[in-house]
Request: fold
Amino acid sequence: MLLNKPKRKIKLMEICGTHTMSIAQNGIRSLLEENIELVSGPGCPVCVTPSNIIDICLELLKEPNIVIFSYGDMLRVPGSKGKRLFQHKQVKMCLSPLEALDYAKENPNKQIIFLGVGFETTTPGSAICILEAYKQNIKNFFFYSLLKRTEPALRTLLKDDPDIDGFICPGHVACILGEQGFQFLSKEYHKPGVISGFEAEDILCSINLLIDMINQDTPAIKNTYQRAVRYNGNQKALSLIHDIFEPETSLWKGLGNIEKSGLKLKDTYSQFDAKIHFQLPLPENKEPKRCQCANILTGKKKPIECPLFQKICTPQNPIGPCMVSSEGACAASFMYEERL
Reply:
């Protein structure tokens, strides 16, 4: 596929972990001209979650009747002392929060906490789980919301780095938000965006469209993933999210505290809020020494520019979450791109 030639040096950002891995796996950067810089943004929910969440969870696990459930990658993130959740016998990996809810019903003498990590893609599943817990009046199930909203993060990112010329927008998130969820990029910030699928052809087509819009100075939001994404998104899922959650200020690794970028349970469902029930402290963003995950997540540095990359930090011994996550920029680069 022949790409359009940009009239100037441009900087494009993908903001989806699946795109990050596909770009690396298919060698897409090697196909681009030197004046096209393609950087990874905050598209991995595990990567943007503050590291000391692990420390908070490990403290909770000192109570023998507490069991924590979450998705696999979150369980491998190291805390400040290097300990990981998967090493603890009271921690269980799951593919759905409903698994944690079923365990709570089967073990009424234990307190079950689900770590709800993700963007809009996984939020409807969490909302369904909370609704089921409410309907069934489950007393020993709690939800620790680490959910993030895409739009506030992108707004913060553009304030911090207005030189990003265009975005490859996440197809998974767009399935929920729709094309309308990204219109603010072109209308308010004069930045083009292309909602993309995940095959190499999808991504190359998206880059081509971005170059064309930048060359002609005609920013818009285009959708090359029409096989899955509608203009208005998934209205049932959006309605469910609105019924169960409300926005709150949330801490992002690399971006700091962002207003209305997180989601918390509404008062009707606050009985399931782990932060309230266990009086959990607000997280801080404690980075491992010399780890550059925060700069990598915001496109300021590439994985190879981190002094730990491949030397100390590897998929077998990950120091930061960008190497832990199966969709992290460092893991993708280690497996498919850079070699020291």
